[in-house]
Amino acid sequence: MRIPIDRNSPTPLYEQIEKHLRQGILNGSLAPEARLPASRQLASDLGVNRITVENAYAALEADGLVYSRVGSGTYILPPNPLPKISRPGDETAWPLWQRNLPERSLGARAAVEELRLTAGRADHISFAGGISDSNLFPAEDFRKVLQAVMRRDGIAALEYGDRRGYAPLRETIAHILASQGLQTSPENVLITAGSQQALALVSQLLLEPGDTILVESPTYSGALDLFRALNFRIIGVPVDGQGMCVDLLEKQLQQHHPKLVYTIPNFHNPTGTCLSGARRRELIVLSDRYNVPIFEDDFVGDLRYEGRAQPALKALDPGGRVIHVSTFSKMLMPGLRVGFLVADGPVYDGLVKFKRVNDLATSSLIQRALHDYVTVGRYQAHLRRSTHIFRKRRDAMLAAIQRHLSGGIDIDPPQGGLFIWLKLPGNLSADDLLPRAIREGVDFMPGGNFFLDGGDGAGWLRLNFVVHEEGWAEEGIRRLARAVARL
Amino acid sequence: MRIPIDRNSPTPLYEQIEKHLRQGILNGSLAPEARLPASRQLASDLGVNRITVENAYAALEADGLVYSRVGSGTYILPPNPLPKISRPGDETAWPLWQRNLPERSLGARAAVEELRLTAGRADHISFAGGISDSNLFPAEDFRKVLQAVMRRDGIAALEYGDRRGYAPLRETIAHILASQGLQTSPENVLITAGSQQALALVSQLLLEPGDTILVESPTYSGALDLFRALNFRIIGVPVDGQGMCVDLLEKQLQQHHPKLVYTIPNFHNPTGTCLSGARRRELIVLSDRYNVPIFEDDFVGDLRYEGRAQPALKALDPGGRVIHVSTFSKMLMPGLRVGFLVADGPVYDGLVKFKRVNDLATSSLIQRALHDYVTVGRYQAHLRRSTHIFRKRRDAMLAAIQRHLSGGIDIDPPQGGLFIWLKLPGNLSADDLLPRAIREGVDFMPGGNFFLDGGDGAGWLRLNFVVHEEGWAEEGIRRLARAVARL
């Protein structure tokens, strides 16, 4: 066999030989099952050391291109024919498991798909979002804090850190909660990637597919999406002006034996209502009587513009009944992805370990920066400032609705939070209204999104009243009124 | 009824009345079912407006302390007795669901619990960890990049951003992968909170509790922990010097019909071996024949010190068979919590949506900073520098083992990655060795951690060779040798 070798090349001789043979095998000029020359023979043909040839053969064997039979020699392996490459766009070329992915209801409602098209369009006024006005995010303060943390902690800020979360941040959270009447210890706080992850961890730890979860109806669409994706059985309990209708809950508990009750007691998403004090106590009593944990989603509990705060469910918890969850995302900076849960009893350790297997930990750097930001009182100042601004925006939007949309519109003005929940007059459908509203340059979240059965919310829509300045919001309501008039 | 009111107080009159009545109800001096005075009567008693009294009664009613019967008056509700407070330390006081949490095997092996005690102890040399030397993390460069991003992007860096991940970072990742021979598009990249989250998402999307997953035996303990927590049936396929024994795989596929094959083809954790080229092709063929997806965990694929890189399984994928996952955690900075997966076909959209319901998104700020850091070529420079340093550390540790631990020790020197996998002489047990090693001031990860049945790894231990400088590592091996001698 003739193999061109170059003794002046920087490529070692064995590699030159190996490359040549490899090429021949791959392009088929060396046929499968053909025997390679004995190493002694090829070495003598090429005028190289026998070890050099043996090294080349060994490299080919390691890659599965040749095999050696003891006492017989080295043979070329038939190439392993890979499956044919799919043509792009040929759906039938996907493997069967891809064409039959487990049913997880991950699709969005058609009405919501429509909202995507408006994103970033100039002059469009969106009331659909779930966060506060990003222009109020304390970006410059946070930049300085990040700098200080990196200069002070350096490498430590880039390591995994405590799996429960950065200890000083857990301490700060315990202090903030205590100031809101919820006594807890940093040892009962677990930092999560936003409250959404807390919800995912708790529900996946406590439920298996097919298990039942009780929710308010309507409720936060991100919770419904999660529970649907996890194939839970979801049972809804109606909401009125006092929050979840706890008097209707007991029958559901008896009938369905849920593994978890998911509730948003403050400035409920989407209705904006608060659970009354009496119902809070009743809920705790039922949790105890029917041995069912309560997940308390307090996503904007501190954004109160008037009225008296009720105690957190967790503050009424005699021990281990309630898992309390909140976040810095809604008010401060959603992109940080830092939330937290408070739990006591064996479930706390279970959640710490379940968090670890799910994503190891939440960014240590972001936690340290958030801790620095929050402790210096800036969080409280930011909250006061936001509350002041948002109260005025709420009043302005309510007035604008009164002015432009009055006929037959039904609203219960919220005492806090982000949302106005609005019933359209007559039998008008929010899903039908949305495309017309988008043409007028405004949007909202249609009520169907928040119900198990989208049809139940057909007449409702949710408006985020904190996200735009008063004048701009009024213009949005004016456009909405035009769309309603056309419908 | 006499209620002391102070007309000079800043507290409104209705609130003074309400507070007084509330106190009486809660301390029992106003008995349940007692009727409150008619509002007209009380108003006249106190010399206040009737509306003031009605406001006080309404506030009490909203809180569930009183109720009104039409035409009859306002009555005190019996207080809702909350369940008794648990005494701390009384385990039987937890609700039943807490005492019977779903079996999720979230406990750690006793041997590993021992490792926690050594954390942070001065003069202790740990070879147990799974990450690289944090002293090499580019903290100062990263600080500057963070600054630049916050100054440039401001608020945008603190919003949710694209749910698939920051588009320019996905583009950079596609470029890096292309340079490693894996052609893909940013549209097929999903950013995750480290590779651990990618693993959690893929396995939870494709499997339900009780479904079967195939893994190498031994394999990454964090994957075993996750799969156990999710109650999957786990089947192990042995590993030899060429990686997973793919010739034994077909029988397992026929017998167990797994929903996923989890593999670490490069510098396998814990054994350090690489899957041969022939086996890679065979694995793709089997994936196709048995309609089973492959999860390729390439956690340190680019940390190669010698030898030729094999193509990624994803590079051999004819379309939609392989989900490829990698991370910036191992080499760069674990505290960032940024990893990524590459997938094509319907499963990609499913994963994007499943990520969204699990934690909405990964920190936009960190993604932007990472993108800036990586594009300017610093990642590649950092990789070259690390590879150079780690190669020397590997050689030094192999030499130290030769010098101090030679008798009967069995090692296959790894061509890259982080780990040396070491067989103890005779029937010595790594679990027995660990406490003795800790007393000598050194530790390691015992082999039992990486096996389905911990007993199978009794004679093995995993050493992280990149984490300490040569001299310090040699001292560690010397201590380990003393512990072995004592055993």
Low-confidence stretches of chain A: none
The count of helical stretches of chain A stands at 17
> What quaternary form is this?
homodimer
The proportion of strand residues of chain A reads 5-15%
Distance between the termini of chain A: 84 Å
CATH class of the largest domain in chain A: Alpha Beta
Strand arrangement across the biggest beta sheet of chain A:
4-11-10-9-8-5-6-7
Helix content of chain A: 40-55%
> How many domains would you count in the coordinates of chain A?
3
- Structural category of chain A is alpha/beta
Which superfamily, in CATH terms, is the homologous superfamily of the largest domain in chain A? Answer: Type I PLP-dependent aspartate aminotransferase-like (Major domain)
Rg calc of chain A: 31 Å
Main sheet record of chain A: 8 strands, mixed
Tell me the CATH topology of the largest domain in chain A. Answer: Aspartate Aminotransferase, domain 2
Principal-axes geometry of chain A comes out as elongated
In short:
2 copies of one chain form a homodimer. Helices cover 42% and strands 13% of the residues of chain A.
Molecular structure report:
The structure is a homodimer of 487-residue chains. Chain A is of the alpha/beta class. Chain A has three domains: 13-76, Winged helix-like DNA-binding domain superfamily/Winged helix DNA-binding domain (Arc Repressor Mutant, subunit A), CATH 1.10.10; 110-130 and 381-486, Aspartate Aminotransferase, domain 1, CATH 3.90.1150.10; 136-376, 3-Layer(aba) Sandwich (Aspartate Aminotransferase, domain 2), CATH 3.40.640. In chain A, 42% of the residues lie in helices and 13% in strands. In chain A, the strands form four sheets. In chain A, strands 4-11-10-9-8-5-6-7 form an eight-stranded mixed β-sheet, with helices on both faces. At the A-B interface, helix 4, helix 6, helix 8, helix 9 and helix 11 of A face helix 4, helix 6, helix 8, helix 9 and helix 11 of B.
